[in-house]
Amino acid sequence: MRSLRAEIERALDELEVHRRPTDFQRLAYHVASLQWPNLCATTPVSDMGADALVPLHDGKTEFVLICGIKGGLKKLKEDCRRLKETHPELKEIVFATTQPVTEIKETKWRESVHREFGIRLHDVIQREWIATELEKPASRWLCEEYLHIVFKESEDLAEILPRICIAANKLLGTWKDDYGFDNHPLIDLLLEEQPDQKEARVELHLSDFPRHLKASDRCYWITGAPGAGKTFSLIKIGSVLTQLNSLIPILVPLRDLSDRRDKPLEWIASEPSFQE
Length: 276
Known about the structure:
Layout: H1 4-17, H2 21-35, E1 40-41, E2 52-55, E3 61-68, H3 73-86, E4 92-97, H4 103-117, E5 120-125, H5 127-134, H6 140-147, H7 152-155, H8 157-179, E6 190-193, E7 202-205, H9 209-212, H10 230-244, H11 254-260, H12 264-270
Parallel strand pairs: 3-4, 4-5
Antiparallel strand pairs: 1-2, 2-3, 6-7
Helix pairs in contact: 1-5, 8-10
């Protein structure tokens, strides 16, 4: 049986052996940005000691991510020494390393860095943190992109698409149950598309709208006052798309995304219907 954790551990070992600092820097940035979404990546070279940072309006920064393959306290202090020269206003750092770091060791590092440089070591993103994050379904692309781990699903899209359709249908069914969709009459609303000024406005009914959608479309907004029928319209569109067997409708509640601060793919991957 395949063990994803074992593959991640082996891939992290290979990062160390083959000294691929750029891959690790980018991997660590994405892992860190899940916790600190305001982080901005810097260039892999000539980064003035900061591998990512939270910029302030005056071009300065008080929060920095620094990375080190097999990085320990020596590497951490070298980066802090450089950062004190390039970013004297710096107050907090996060350190990412491929090495395992115990809480006891992290506490000692925190005390040493603060005593010598006056900088607060906020967290150490160590091997266990990284591996646990990469095990999540939403992080599989990171495994493929930076650790070169190939998933069977990526090799055979034709095999996984039916499973995605089934999961999307189950999610759609949940929405129908939650909103009592099948127990209410559906009003075939008249929709008005508002394109660019050079184009003429297009009017079509709700029942025709799903056939109007294309995979190349980027975004459509359905606007209206509370109670106007936006949610029911969305469910209807999803139902027709399912019947047409063209696009796969996956309904994502924006309120949940806001409350949980998830990214859309993370929310989808966390849904029970997509974990079966």
